[in-house]
Amino acid sequence: MSNEEIINKYLKKDYDKSEIKKINKNGGLENLQPNNILQIKDFMLLQRVIKKINSILDTAELLNQIVQDVSKTLGFTRCAVLLFHEKETELEIAALTGWDDDNFYPGFRLCKNHGIVWKAVREQRIVYIPDVLNFPEEAPCAFTSRSHLDVPLFHHGKFIGILNAQNIKVNAFSRHDLRVLKILASHISIAIENSRLFEIEKKEKEIMLVELKQAKDIQSRMFPKKSPDINNFKVNGICEPCQEVGGDWFDYIELSNGKTGVVLADVAGKGLSAAFLMSSARTIFRLIAKEEVNPSAVLKRVNDYLIDDLPPTRFITMIYLIIDDKTGKISISNAGHLYPMRIFQNNLTQIKFDTGFPLGIQKYDYQDHEIFLEKGEKLFLYSDGVTEATNSEHEYFEDKMMLKSLKSSNSNLNSIFKDVKTFIGSSTQNDDITIVEIEAL
Fold first, then answer.
1. Taking a C-beta distance cutoff of 8 angstroms, is the pair 371, 333 a contact?
2. Residues 6+ apart with CB under 8 A from 6
3. pTM score > 0.90 for this model?
């Protein structure tokens, strides 16, 4: 039997000395008297209320549990919490217990000066009416309660509502009840404010999630819907942001000379800011790429624009190549990006050449590099979200795992992506993963 159960029996005169000795022994309570027991019950009530405040964030549920507990523990006929709406000058019942009729319910609003409770609102102080029948002007409606107590709720000095208690007996509230209710009122005020802030944060989060979903939909439209139709070549790409949106991007550009451009870029950073910069860089790139015939010239002009536009801590790595399907030549230029991987009949090499500075840092003259792919040969472009992927042991995928994945039989875009995701396992993906595969047919 708990201490609280023993205390309840004590108050009902339903106890024996052995139980009192037990609570003395277990709880260190001495010379128990009825007043001591009442204080313990009130202390336990406050403990329960504080526990509820720390565990329940839903305002209606929290206040409902509090008024039920307070009314039961302190023996009130009715108990309610009313919230003040300053703009409409109305009181709204947030939670109540003890009303058997349908006249009052959660959500019901009392107009200004309607009912006894408004006396406490007007005077901004505790109002105790020992017998409401002596104040007919304050009780315009039929009243079954006789004692009426209203304790204002304040938060940082601002009036936010009323804690109401009623009893069918005349002069039913003691000074002790008043002290307990004043303490409860301060805790309830904090609970209401915490719940209000939680609701605001919850709504803001919901709005943000909607906006993120919309941003994700918009960004997904920026990626190619299908592979380009290139004679003697097959090109495929995949990108998975680590958040709703990201800074990685790949694209295919149909050029006026009949050639096809393929680009892969990675904005430093993650999330919305990286996605925004990616979108801006994409627009600039697409406009310039259609005018320039060499990848290096495209990167140089894009870089000149971004030097003025990008924040000091931001930059973009980019690799851009142009496929000439008539000659089979591929021209590549690199702005600080990872070296491409080239594989043919299990022979794997990195194409190493001048990488240059990432875009947006300083002016730079980028270089072109030319390669030819034999039939069946593949070229892979990828972002550092591949090589820097980490598992639960904090190990990196790195180039060696990339090499292992590429050397497996029939390796392709999807098999590499699957290997990276398997390597990450239950760990959190910490960067965008982007891969582009170019195969000579």
1. no
2. 15, 19, 20, 22, 23
3. no
